[in-house]
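ok so heres the complex, four chains, lmk if somethin looks off
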Amino acid sequence: MIKAGIIGSTGYAGAELVRLLLQHPEAEIVWYGSRSYVDQNYADIYHNMFRLVDAKCMDEDMERLSKEADVIFTATPQGFCASMVNDTILNSSKIIDLSADFRLKKIDVYERWYKLEHKAPQYLKEAVYGLCEINRDRIRGARIVANPGCYTTTSILTLYPLVKEGLIDDSSIIIDAKSGTSGAGRGAKIPNLFCEVNESIKPYGVATHRHTPEIEEQLSYAAGLDYMDGESILINFTPHLVPMNRGILATCYANLRDGVTADDITAAYRKYYAEETFIRLLGNGNFPETRWVEGSNFVDIGFTVDPRTKRVIAAGALDNLVKGAAGQAVQNMNLLFGLPEDTGLKLVPVFP
Amino acid sequence: MIKAGIIGSTGYAGAELVRLLLQHPEAEIVWYGSRSYVDQNYADIYHNMFRLVDAKCMDEDMERLSKEADVIFTATPQGFCASMVNDTILNSSKIIDLSADFRLKKIDVYERWYKLEHKAPQYLKEAVYGLCEINRDRIRGARIVANPGCYTTTSILTLYPLVKEGLIDDSSIIIDAKSGTSGAGRGAKIPNLFCEVNESIKPYGVATHRHTPEIEEQLSYAAGLDYMDGESILINFTPHLVPMNRGILATCYANLRDGVTADDITAAYRKYYAEETFIRLLGNGNFPETRWVEGSNFVDIGFTVDPRTKRVIAAGALDNLVKGAAGQAVQNMNLLFGLPEDTGLKLVPVFP
Amino acid sequence: MIKAGIIGSTGYAGAELVRLLLQHPEAEIVWYGSRSYVDQNYADIYHNMFRLVDAKCMDEDMERLSKEADVIFTATPQGFCASMVNDTILNSSKIIDLSADFRLKKIDVYERWYKLEHKAPQYLKEAVYGLCEINRDRIRGARIVANPGCYTTTSILTLYPLVKEGLIDDSSIIIDAKSGTSGAGRGAKIPNLFCEVNESIKPYGVATHRHTPEIEEQLSYAAGLDYMDGESILINFTPHLVPMNRGILATCYANLRDGVTADDITAAYRKYYAEETFIRLLGNGNFPETRWVEGSNFVDIGFTVDPRTKRVIAAGALDNLVKGAAGQAVQNMNLLFGLPEDTGLKLVPVFP
Amino acid sequence: MIKAGIIGSTGYAGAELVRLLLQHPEAEIVWYGSRSYVDQNYADIYHNMFRLVDAKCMDEDMERLSKEADVIFTATPQGFCASMVNDTILNSSKIIDLSADFRLKKIDVYERWYKLEHKAPQYLKEAVYGLCEINRDRIRGARIVANPGCYTTTSILTLYPLVKEGLIDDSSIIIDAKSGTSGAGRGAKIPNLFCEVNESIKPYGVATHRHTPEIEEQLSYAAGLDYMDGESILINFTPHLVPMNRGILATCYANLRDGVTADDITAAYRKYYAEETFIRLLGNGNFPETRWVEGSNFVDIGFTVDPRTKRVIAAGALDNLVKGAAGQAVQNMNLLFGLPEDTGLKLVPVFP
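and the predicted structre for the whole thing:
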């Protein structure tokens, strides 16, 4: 059994990790870390876990935890993991970091978009970006996996084959994304109150959202650009808050390169994803809806070509807490420990 | 492997059966019956099943189905199962009927509340009321299991120990219940449109809802009354429609018999449910919330005693599609086939 | 023009007062009080008021405000109004208090249920309980109007004619109430986050909710009891939180006195409410739904008699922010200033 | 008093017209037309109108209606108005058509996008596109006003100043729009059931939605193109269904022409909208949210410039049933009858 510790287990992503690991046949949770609820019963914070979890919340002592756990999940605010990680920890335990600390390879980009000093730049190079479908082989040997953001997973997986195969004008990419409210976390803030979110939709972080450079970096690699040397795709990314608990939809627009057809698009998606367990290709003319993936680790992707404007409109949908966070983290754990990738993740979407 | 057939697989309860049976280690679905969608791909009706179910919808030929299946689930409108069942079928296959056809033992009560002639009264006596926690032993040997209604499961389980132990005045029972909208089914009706349900709560079927006699009959048995001979507890039962997908909450009121204390209530709940896998007793002063059971087979029960009015207020919560329908049906299947009762039902509640 | 000041104008009830007073032909707002947002633009807190309100938030200096305003609305936490009110203020301005400070006539009841010392018991006797349909005449001459609670307005108006006419057993009253989330206020608390409220229903404050004694006191007066001398109706009142913004539904149960018929109930409702502008009687067998009153000052009331249990089930529905708070406060203001009661309140319910 | 008749008064847009006209000081409704509910009490279909509307639903006899009404609103499916309108009607009554029949000036475009033969092409030329802020002067003298679509009102008003002033590359426009579910109408269809819409977001009609040519035509006029002669802006328009009752948000993307700055954008918006009653300019860096306009006739518009990609992202929000349908229709009526444009439309947004 893999011994897993979670720091930040009382946030929504952390709680979803608990749900998934409880159903994982090869893992057990040995540490329910929580800054806010130390010494309280975990099931008193999340009553759905009553009779399923009989443990108290622990502190965030990552070094001590590394002695007890084979893998540490950090579902914590930006900056935490970078400020804690060291070789002692890494010699005892793998780290799967659900924050952004090790997602961006360029320190200046991190510091500019996150307004934070990076405390562990020495690990940036070895950390592997944990988008399993793209980086599978490198993840297996990693010590630190940077688990991708929810918006970024949706956006990158939707656009990757198109960029990789050179089917679209990389300078024309626009991503209009929509997320359920669990993505905003469990912090007690007025904008996240029921009455503020319900019966409304709003854009936020327009042209400034921090998932932007993460998408740009990964798509730049796909395009074969020398990102570290300053080459980069630039995109527009606009997230919106939707009055629902779970789900992300990314509607992506791009100009087609001359002569590219819908069949080319279909072929590109098939080339990269036909064998993927967690990516469901809906095909030309079909579009995903978040209700069909809720509770599962699936990403549904569909598209259409508009012959009038010569653009492709492609969209991806996933559950932001599963494939967008905890599910992908477990998928990464499976890779790290040599398990079949879908172990503990054969989740049938819950509808309605 | 148990071969299972579902008639009515494209309603919400039927679709939930599909979800649960797909995750059941000892069962496989051999028949996706659907009156409305014969010959269509099941996954075209429920896109969440894309790549998980590769089957077309079948008709409702129960006799043919009985030759292919070990167990038939009928998630159909009232009257269907009674009009179809016969000895040929029952000699080949078990039936778990999710409709009301075999729940009420008295034909006149059935016909009065359901405004339907009963087409198979000859099986009424042998059919077993499938409330597993109460009727476990009799279910094991049954040919026909009458799977309880969603409201009734919640209400009966909440009140059973209090009635059985004689702690309350049986003539004082009032059940005020609230249900998510999936309980109304997938029929295309104006009152179930999003804009009609959203941002509203309403009572319906007040003093006339058909789950009333089902609750009365079962509680009468618990009270030791000779129900078949005309003795019966009478209750008030008022359902309400709540703008959410899943979940039932039954808030129950009753006058305490003289001298009954909160400790007596606690003891009664423990006596009957302490060992139950799917009943979680929250204890005195705690109340259930539907969010904590969503997606799982749990029933959460809590209560308080009001010393001012000498009443007990007890409440139960469950997921109407799981413990209130498909989950309980699978639990019954497990009993029928000698499997551990929680096989395929170790579902961790999904939150948020 | 009536000059109106609002203390607590940035809570939901206060904001609804702003909405209503802006549309009131005989009133203008001269003071937008707010503890949390002093000196900030009101329209920066409530963007719906952009270009409609050009004022900054003021402090809570009630004495100064009383010099500028003809009427002061206190939409503030319990204890505030009682701690501030004095004769100087009352000589300059009327007070309509939306908190509970002057609703309960017995200090010990207030202090027991609210766990607060009452700071102005000297005004308790003269303050008038502002349930317009019942206390209209006394309200006109009041200096302090105690604006009723949202649950209590619904509950009392639904039950008043039945108690007043002696049609029900007063010891048998059970009120099962359901409220939208705006009733919980705009405080940043985890239980009120979107993801916590959405897709769930829960009871709360069972047997302890503070609107209980308020309902009991008013119904006791209706029953002709000597409440101040210790006589009282005792009820059970159970509120539930519903995932919607606005709306309260109170489902009320009571045993009928011998021989009482549905026609008697109808006659009682007609006797007291037939001429009421804001009470809509739906009649025997019809039940209210909160969607039909949203945004308006209406209370919809319906009922049925269950001949099996000899109980009446009656239900009332209103918009908790309008008739349950701000609308009723404006109705009280109209009474205080000799205006037609529906001035500024001819609001057509908004649906969907 | 203006005598108004409504054909299609039992759809959501028709019902909103009823709500607005009931509160309009210079209009009265003389005809509640409804194909589905002839001879039924209007208030039995829309219970919110109980005691406010005492009328039965009438048929769709437009000629008879034209004799009784000064203005006829047709809130009907596409094709109805065109099939009915004639000179007899137009000599008696003005028509404000909420369908698409007279919005598109080119018959072939109408027939291609709507898959309908146009039955009254002879009126296409004289019908005026009723976007009040743009076409005010021409509307005043019209006999037929083509009331704009909900998505189109939002999209055109957001983009009009930018196109008109030549600030953006017209070939680069992408509109990603999101709508509440009332926009889908009150038809009883499975995709509009509560459980299908709730907890999900989906794109639909991608690259094929019928509001596309309407936006293109109007923006082409703004750009000074000879639209009737075949010149046209081409856009991408993608609508999404959001789990909320009301509200439309259009997030618009376009490449800036060389040298265009945020100040230029601000100046353009001010130039066209600074004096507009119903357009609220939020300014650079601010974005609208549908909750702030609900129930009102406001359009809120904000934008930002992304210096990295040299694009402007502008967004507009409105209530699809008010400014997107019934409110704009009333605004048009006011123009037709020489009333101040905001008569009956001084609606304060309802929040929460």
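quick notes: Residues 2-126 of chain B form a domain with the Rossmann fold fold (CATH 3.40.50.720). thats all i got rn
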